[in-house]
Design a protein that fits this description.
Strand order of the largest sheet: 1-4
Structural class: mainly alpha
Order of helices and strands: HHEEEEHH
Radius of gyration: 34 Å
Number of strands: 4
Low-confidence stretches: none
Helix content: 55-70%
Mean pLDDT: 85
Shape: elongated
Oligomer: single chain
Largest sheet: 2 strands, antiparallel
CATH architecture: Orthogonal Bundle
Strand content: 5-15%
Number of domains: 1
CATH topology: Non-ribosomal Peptide Synthetase Peptidyl Carrier Protein, Chain A
Amino acid sequence: MSKFIKEFKAFALRGNVVDMAVGIIIGAAFGKIVSSLVSDLLMPLVGALAGGVNFTDWKWNIVGERASILDPDIMLPAVTLNYGNFIQVLIDFIIIALCVFLLIKGLNKLTSAKKKEAEQEAPAPAPEPEPTREEVLLTEIRDLLKKK
């Protein structure tokens, strides 16, 4: 059992796993911030500019409110497609996707700049040394044997 715990500890404390966990936690918090930004700030402004429209109220009634078949005194709620809420969630997604794209683009630019810097700092490869007298002699012998 202790071997299992040691292996799990080694796995959990590796850099990649910890980095991924931090990324997931920050990503979840960022998603909540963007959702609040869209639902509490952007959509009310867009709605006000569009004539006082509340996008979350936009829906299509498939079946209206109706009486229950079993008990006519009980009213069943309407069946709706809430496309206004979908538009709001779509805007959330677009903002998050744009932020992730810009983050990755910045990281790629930083990585390529470091790679170029490392290439410039790397010493030029040393030129091949001149062949020794023995190598020249052996090459000549090989060439003579090829001719025969």
